[in-house]
User: Fold these one by one.
Assistant:
Number 1:
Amino acid sequence: MRLPRSPVPVKPTARRGLLPATLLLSLLGLSLCGASGAAAQPWVGPSGEPSEEAVTEARALYARGSEAAEEQRWSDAIDHFERSYSLSGAAVALYSLGYTLRAVGRFRDARDAFDQLLEDPSVDDDLRAQATPLREEVADKVAVLSLGGLELHDDARVQLDAVEVEDTGQRPLPVETDPGEHALRVDAPGFAPFEWRGSLGGGDRLTVRVELEAASTPWYQSPWLWVGAGTALVIAGIITAVIVQGNAQLDPRTEYHLEL
Amino acid sequence: MRIPLAVALTCLLSSACAQNAILELAIDMPAADPLRPNLVVQALSGEADFSNDWPQSQLTGIPLDTTEANLVEVGIEGSGDDLLRELNVRLRFCEDPECHAIADGDPPEVWLTFERAFYQAEYTSYEVSLMPPPTMAPSAPTVVGKCAVFGCVEGSSETGYCIGDVHHCE
């Protein structure tokens, strides 16, 4: 993977060295002019013009992210690019973030990063031209589980890979995810959990029919069990009482004893 | 769940009530006559004829000390109908442990009739003080009122063990 290294990002073709410091500085300086303040989007830049210190740190983070990406330390790279973007709002940092997310197969996040980038009207045409086909590529690789059967369960709780899925109210409920093995769980009050496990490929569209069945009360919560147990206890008590009563006697306490 | 448990517990607790009763008789007397060193105790509930023997209900061969004072404690156990009837007790002082010696033909005796001695599941007691000890059989039993029988209360009382005419055990 190669990250942008000219004053404007270029389409990566092969692994190369990182940006020279002077170019990086100019790149960040250029991109800062187009900083986005779209707070509603997942990656948030600074609310206003970043300070000189913030820009300096953002440059350093970007450089470290590039190094990490060169060394395929993807997690570190993503972290550095995110922090660089949060400090500077630089479009190139967001681009690099999307590129790195794409490299690790997080196509949904990569698409969102590119979407966020492309929604920024200040992004220059060259960077936009670089990002647009990548956005299309990763968007095509996002898999979608379409959950049917939830029409009567507005209070259902949907989890994919143990992460809560927002119920938009759309039916069937679309759940986007990345290719790979996934576990789905749907809970609804009064119903047994519905679980599905399966593998999804890039761009798969799979419909899963969620069939929620009324929950059966565990045997130990059955009121009849406790009524029965209580009754048995009472009967046992009565029987014991009868037996014990039959045998209950005062014991002699004296040396000599005479029974009538 | 708590209610059945409580019921069962009540059943178990109520089952602890015994069906019998015991009168503990303390016989306090001086050193026994060396010629009659054995005590025989007979007891019979209901109407009893003291002129007859009650061999069906007797305790034989209680040895008495002929040199020192004696305190003999005998428990008499009753159940069923015995609990509501009067209790008759005969104490015999004999040469033979079973009172079969020739000299035992007309032994000294103590006759007691307890108006009521038993209360279900309760121990009661009565002290017979034989000072001086008998030298012959009496002509009639000594009647012991129910209030003279100790039971169901702490300590001792010279006025008896009743409140009004109701015994503490009733």
Number 2:
Amino acid sequence: MDDLRRHLLKRLIRTMTIQTLKTTLRLWARLSVEQQESLDFTKPKYVLTERLLDLCEESGLGVKHITELEMVYVIDHPNQRQWHAYELLEAADDALSVELSNFKEQFKAHLAELIRRVSIRIKKHTDEAVWIRIAWGDRSSRPNHLKPTYVVHHLQTPYVFITNSTSKTMPLLSQALVLATRYSSMKDAGLSGRNLAAIRGLLMKQFQQVFPSKHLQPLQGDNQTKPNPQMECEQDEQSEKRLQAACEAFGGGTLPELQKVTYTLETKFKDKTNQIMTEREQPFRCTVTFKSSNILESLRHSALTGITSTPLSPLLSSISQKGRNVFLITDKGKTEDQIGKKRGLRNLADDVFLKDTIEAAAWCQLQTFTDHVSLPIVIGMEGAEQQALLAELKSVDRSCLEESPNRIEPFQFFFNSKKDYEMFCVEMFDRRKLKVFASWE
Amino acid sequence: MSVLRPLSKLPDINAASVLLVENEEDFQQKLAGVMVKEKSVMVKVRLAKSLPLPAKNEPNRPRIDLVVFLINLMSELSLQSAEASLKHLGQGYFLGKVCFMVTNARHAALPAERMVAVRKLASGLRCPLLYAEDQTPDGVTNAAERLLVILRVAAGCVPMTTALFLSNLTSCIVPTEEEEQQNLDFDA
Amino acid sequence: MDPKTSVARSPFSSVVQRRSKSYRQSYRSYVGTMSHLAYTPGFTKRRLTTCRLAPKRCSTAEMNPEQRALLVREWQLSYVTPLYRFQHGHLKTYSRQLAAFLVSERQRGVAAEVGLESTLRVTFTLVAGMAQTEEEADTVFIKIHSKTPLALPDDPQKVLWSGWLTCVGGDPDYLRTLPEDFVCLPLFCSGGTEGLTALVKAWFQRTFDCCFGLLEINSVNLQWLAALWTDCHARTSIKQLKLVWSLPAEPPMEVIYAMHAQDASELWRSVRQPGLREEEDDGSVGLEEVACFFKGLKSHFYRHFRVELPAGRLTQVSTALGSAKHGGRIKISNSSYMITTLTLLTECALLKMPI
């Protein structure tokens, strides 16, 4: 017991700097102020570890409390680990009304059923995120606190972020999560990275898409001093166009930090100069990975300098659009894309309904409403069903929509409180100019 | 128009215009900053990433006396872009009004094949090939001075000398194998 | 330089005559100006290797254990100028001298990694079977062992550092032009700590009056390696061809392009003079074919991503046969095509040498 405590503490302190140790101890709040002040932070780490162990003895703090300390540290510094995003699918009716205490109970109960020896700690952070720390054991051994899994979930959103989960523990974890949150299944969202805020922002579209106005100077011009009249750039317009295209695809402000993007390509090789390969039936299999400390920033910069030709390839712009960084591209997928581009404006309008409805629903999930809000049924449906409903909606004449409420119903937002309804309308119709259906009872 | 021609406009008095073409758009800024400070002649610098130049600038553009291609030898794209731009230059420019300036020629990782390709390009077009160092202010100043020498001649500001005459003296020459063999025989 | 000028004509004349497609190779001129950077037109003409022999397989059974030791790890490459009065017969003496030198440096406080108590033992061994022609010197393998005084005699000795000097497939004409006392082993591969490498180099410099320098593998040579290794796929599977480019964006971006071995191999074969039958293939690979192969790969990439790979630099090539990095690090994983890889590297070393 003592050994484990010592081992845990030693390992933890090794990863922290002195400054973070100070702040983490303060946040932990298990040691009194005098005890914290008695620690001499100028001494080497092994001395500090011994002193901390003594203090823990004094205050009667055990392994449980050390794991709490670790959790406080990880919540404060989540970017030391590799996070994977998962998406919960097919919400049941009451999925949105799952409360924290309910969730906690259900999760603990379900996981304890699935695996006997497991140590769970749940904490709610100030920004509405629920943090779960799980140490896995099995029939023959105690929970292993040296390799815990951390899970972050925002209630009422269908996203879960997990780190350090093995293939053995993943199915158990997903089962417990799905049951506790009242969804029907969980799938890999295809997004992973070190920066938790970045992947969260990317998935939930929380980062700002700042579009530059025409008055922005191109990147390479001198914006500080007045440009010399004797020097002139011939191709200013092209650089501005590149700037526009880059910002449209990636956004203009600070970009979320992703470390890499992987594409598995299984498309046919097409080259005019090489007949033999072009006629080959099998696809040319390869994997392309883009790596950088901030890959979106690098891609945007490369678009500005012309290394990446604009208009940007849809494969690159779909990183932030779809919120993924693992893609599988096959010929069929590409063909669909091309068809999508050729679709007329009329067809685009149909998709607009669905797209706007989904966007509105995502917004609703992040808001706190005074009363119950019912999201459109179409959100939780399968693609084929969605298309069918869309078709039905399309078949109705635009001018007499009110007369066919059944067609509109799957797309409608239902509000119980007038205030919520008004807030929704202001946001959707006035600010975002989306095409959605809403009603208030 | 898609092809730039040297003699399609009237020259300005005591002025010279130079067009710096560079794919990376980096060295050209520094060079331009130094070149416009020249006092003896009013130097106008136009910067471009590649040719052809946009047609809408045509009325405001002065007569271009010298076109300089800045090539970064460490980037293959730089050379490819310069080669592609050459097609949009009128034939009249190749009589001494085109010059190649390369950077990073001393880089340890430079594949020699690229250097040979640039030399062949310059010698095939009978243009001078200048080597420049772009990382220090001194290097940039030196490069700008050398370009100004050629620019003054190309703009007609130096009496008794024309661009064609100068290019005969300064153009890059890559001897063929037979010529080399003859040189050696003669030497020994 | 006098002895060299007198024989300067023979390399040129012999090269001019050898116009055949197979193995034609020459270096920058050994006449006068040695700098690989400046060109004096007329005298120095660099003829580039435009054609290489396709890789020949050497069977694993023929390999001796010393050769197998070369496959173990990743090596850092350097070039070495010819060694003065290096004799293969005196290897034992050299071992003792190097050991003594290392001990004295340690006492001076320079060799920190070695540790004050352990005993050092240096072994110089000959690695037979690598030299391709008579003029080439045999490969020499150097190992530095250490043993703590408390260890039992049966305990294996820890290898602190190992390295080897070699010349594989060097140009015989150039080798013939070297004066009698010089031995040419231009490729030096070292594996171990930087400090020990520096000490070994210092000892060589002092004893044999030679010069060391970092050997970087530039992008064209990496392309050659990629093409030669892909060519081997028909006989030994290379599992996958992985190429790494670094692009100059802010922050710098790396693109890792890994292809399935079979597909890469088919692309290579389609590029190699399409229509060439088995009998006609004389086993030589041309630079245009390599360029074509890479052009095809880059165009496939561009078609999907519209990112210009030529704007960046090829920094790493790896297959199951080995991996090569731009900074001069090489790992040979498979013995079958070791000789070809080493021939290319020896040539790089000979070209980079200032003499």
